[in-house]
Each structure stands twice: as structure tokens, then as C-alpha cells.
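chain below, 195 aa
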Amino acid sequence: MKSNKIELQLPTLQHKTSAESFKNDFFENQEYYIPGSVLLDRMEYEPWLVLNTNNRRKDTVQSGYVQSTTFFAVRKSDDKIIGIIDIRHSLESSALMQYCGHLGVSIRPSERKGLYFKEMMTKTLDFVKSLNIEKILIGCTSDNIKSNKMIQKCGGILLETKSCTDVCGHMPHTIGKLAYIYSFDLYNSNNLIKS
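prediction:
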């Protein structure tokens, strides 16, 4: 049995083969939008890597985006990319403020039985705290029952429920669904994801 231990790694060219396998896992499961992947689901790896690297810096972030840092969650035992998490440094766009929040998270379909979500959230905390963010917002559609349960188990507090519109221009699958917006207080000792 493989260990669940993961580490967050900034994407590099060395991740290309594993990243393509990660993306294909979603496509083979008929999931063509990968939350938190910042268009990995629609781009070849090398151009995506440039976009991803540029988005880390305020002076090079792509127009229409906010500064963010994306990590692969890599399982230590076999270097397999298990998940991806995009951490937005601010919520300057209306779409992020209304529906998406600070974090975009995905776990590959073939690995969703593991306990990776909590571990990814835990490992994200120190980086988020370095951005001076006190409360994390994270959005999830109501039909994503497993993700909603995991967010709640990690200490997410439901703030708001609202109907989705495709304000981002690349999430038509969410139109008409209910969006649940959760908050995590990073300095609340009751959170399960405290460091």
C-alpha cells in the first residue's frame, strides 16, 4: 500500500510527463475542467508553465488574472502528481470574490479515496500565512458532495450559498448550480487544518 505522504512542489519542466498523466486522468473520467489548474486543462504543458511562472509575480501576471502560486501535490513514495492547488494572493477580481475564493484545489480522479485533501490544505497554511491572509475563502458547487464534506471536515465554515453565473468565462459547467462559499480562519484554534 502506497503512503499518503505528499509534498507541495512548484511546477517545473521535470514535471511534464507526470502533469500530462495527471491531466489525462481527468479527461479519461470525462472531467474536462480541472479546478485550480489555471488552464492546464486547456494548454500544452510548456506554455502553461510559462503562464504559471509569470502569474507568481505581480509585474508579470497575465491580464485578467490575479497574482497566484500554483503547486503540484506530489506523493513522495512514487513522485506521482496527486493533486494541484492554486493559491490566489488576493481576491481583486469579482469572480474570485463571488465564487472561487483564495484556493482552487483538485485531486486526480483515481486517487480520491486517499486522505489527500486535508494534507494538501495543511501544507498550504504556512504559505498562505506568509501572504498575510487571515481568512481563506474557498468555493465549491453544491453537487460536489465529497469536496463539500472534506471542506467541512477541515474546518470550513459555510458563509454563503448563491446561484452560479459564468463570471470567469471558462466555467460554463457551473451555470445555474448552487455555489457554497466557505471560510477558514487561519488563527482559530478550532480549525482542523491548523499547523
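The first strand starts at residue 6 and ends at 9. The chain has a mean pLDDT of 85.
thats it, cya
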